[in-house]
Amino acid sequence: MPFIKEILKYDSLSIVGLEKNVGKTECLNYILSRLPLQARKVAVTSIGIDGESKDQVTATKKPEIYLREGVLFSTSETYYKKRKLVSELVDITNERSSLGRVVTGKVRIGGKVMLSGPSSNPALSRWIRSVRALGADITIIDGAISRLSLASPAISQAMILSTGAALSSNVNTLVRKTKYVVELINLPTVHEHLFKLLEHVENGVWGVDCDGKAVDLGLRSSLAVTASELKIPADIKYIYTAGALTDTFLKKVASGAGVKDLTLVVRDFTKIFIDEMVYRNFVHSGGRIAVLQKSRLLAVCINPVAPNGFVLDSDILCEKLRETIGFPVYDIVKNRYDI
Amino acid sequence: MTFKSVLDIDCGIRFLYDKLPLSSSSARKMLLESEAMKSKRDIDIRYSKLNALYNKNCGDIAGKLVCLKDISATIRRTGEGAVLDDIELFEIKYLAIVAREVSQLMEKERIAVVNLPDLSDVIEILDPDSLNIPSFYIYDSYSEELAEVRKRMKAITGFGEKALDDEQMTSLALLQQRNDELENGVRQELAHKLAGKAKKLEHTLKNLSLLDIMIATVAQMKELGLCFPAIAEGGETFYRGMFNPMVKAAVEQRGAAYVPVDISFEKKPVTIIGANMGGKSVVLKTLALNQIAAQFGFGVAAQNCCVNIVDKILFSIGDDQNAEKGISSFAAEMLAINEIVESIRRGDNLLALLDEPARATNPIEGTALVEGLLEVIGKSKGGTVVATHYNIKNDNIKRYRVAGLKDGRMDYRLIETESGDVPHEAVAIAEQLGVNKEWIESTKKYLN
Lengths: 339, 448
Hints:
The structure holds 2 protein chains of 2 kinds.
Chain A: H1 4-7, E1 12-17, H2 24-34, E2 42-46, E3 65-67, E4 72-76, H3 77-81, E5 84-97, E6 100-113, H4 121-133, E7 138-142, E8 158-164, H5 171-185, H6 192-198, E9 205-209, E10 214-216, E11 236-241, E12 245-246, H7 247-255, E13 263-266, E14 272-273, H8 276-284, E15 288-291, E16 296-303, H9 314-325, E17 329-330, H10 332-335
Parallel strand pairs in A: 1-7, 1-8, 2-4, 2-7, 8-16, 11-13, 12-14, 13-15, 16-17
Antiparallel strand pairs in A: 3-6, 4-6, 5-6, 9-10, 9-11
Helix pairs in contact in A: 5-9, 7-8
Chain B: H1 3-6, H2 13-19, H3 25-33, H4 40-54, H5 59-65, H6 72-79, H7 86-108, H8 120-126, H9 144-157, H10 166-195, H11 198-224, E1 230-232, E2 237-242, H12 245-253, E3 261-265, E4 270-273, H13 280-295, E5 304-308, E6 312-316, H14 329-345, E7 350-355, H15 363-377, E8 384-387, E9 398-406, E10 409-417, H16 426-432, H17 437-447
Parallel strand pairs in B: 1-5, 4-8, 4-9, 6-7, 7-8
Antiparallel strand pairs in B: 2-3, 2-5, 9-10
Helix pairs in contact in B: 3-11, 4-11, 5-7, 6-11, 7-8, 7-11, 9-10
């Protein structure tokens, strides 16, 4: 049973797909069917309207989530009424969606349900608090690529990435794209003193000099940078941007003289919105990026079948990915990993 | 007059509302939809209840009321005999449990300001196993067949330690279908049993919300130093040590001290004259605020007071530009005041508050317009208070003036006076504000 033991070391997990139909739900079902529920109480939800029985974009059939007895799950009122399992309603939250309020149930007899839970970071934090109060030890969030920010380490300690032929039918492209995301997820964290210095900085662009002092660089955000604006004093070692890190900003920093002695810092990898080529050029010219917080990537799961029917060779894909990213890679559906 | 409709009167009522520490959204909704109380009996009963709560420890009850949700739609459906889904049944059970817990806390603290019906029959219906926890599903004990079906389902699923084969999946799906049918049957029975309880549930929700409002009101009275008013029907209204909580908070934040005022009036119109920045408008606003407070059962912003009940408050601020209708501020004001005049002459019981009426025209006609207004209004049931800079000559009115500048400092107190002579302090105040010196010198030349 790959990576199940790993999951037990953490109390929050999110599963993120790099594209629709990359097998995220199978991956979730795999985890939910194998976690030792006698030992740990599990709560699960899904972001927004991910989890409907038919994919809204490609109209391919999406598997429902199978939940075992004892699992806590949160979904919309509409989906709760359509559940195919026996469950006890334990909480009605104040979160609302187009499918009604988000409610939490506890499975009495295993079966299937569609999940559609809270859809913002603060709402997910509230959800985690509410299910912990109901006794959950591990919270699992079924994420969505369009909402990658919801996989942020502020919400989940650990993470599983799901990728596949839906992202690209070219093995090399698929591997390259996946590798890039894995690289960002695994960016190093800053030293503890720097973390403490920047942890509560909510906006602006800041420099940190050799003495560990923070200097406001006078920008509202990295988006506000123009040709004349960014002046980096010579003794600055770190540049922290509290918001999104963009191509323009990165190019601006890379064009400066002292890029080799500089480290760019962002809150976490979900704040990075940089084209791969720009990133590679930056790294090539000696630039570095670090994060304040990091999720532990536990595994990468693949689905070799694309929604248009195109199938990649699972073994080759697994092997190639494993080689390139240096991480365990699994095809959950093909190998089943029976108990 | 609903609370929602008076909330936009610029008098500081929104400040009280925003600061009201309500626990539940249900209480907030009830408050917004509530009507002003118009009988002395109703208002007296409300304040005697607040008085009874005043020295009680309501912290635990307020903590419980946080869980109170507005389920009036569900209760209405219950009364109509509709078949409720699990979420609705949960809501009802939850309300009944919250009510029971609040009831127990009230007993412990010897609080009896609202009456909470006994809902043990509802709890019994929705908690057949007496588990006493606020969760709900169609329990096995509702139906023997259901229990049997579920036993068979469980035999297939186990604890989910094994993956199910296709055959097992098919039988599970069939059993699930039967389970759903039986659950629906139980829900119909429950709907039948609960239909008669809707009145009681409605009453419970209403009274819990009211309790929440009253607990929050008492907490606010203590926090802001508000008082219990005496209530009169057709007598004198008086305030001693009246203050405006919003203005007071702003003044104290600046590190200054707020000066409370005394004022009283009956049917005879009242004028307030005084220097600019002497607090005339604040007095009018506070009169509006306190009238609203008294008739909605809030604490009143004064040391002590007696408030005469009115049916409505008409407050003319006099500077609304009605650009949409294409009329000037003067025209808009005249029409607004005309509404007040017509209403008073019809004999309506209203408190009329007018801030510098006819200020936007020449002082000669302006003065005459106000004098004419006071004469035509004459005595009014709810009272009329007018702030003005004009030298009003009418007899049969009561006059106040702001004590005014003394040694370069403003004394905001109101002093009853016989003469209508307006103080001449405008230039001194402008000078204090530090406006252009040459302008002041030139003005003084013209005054002489």
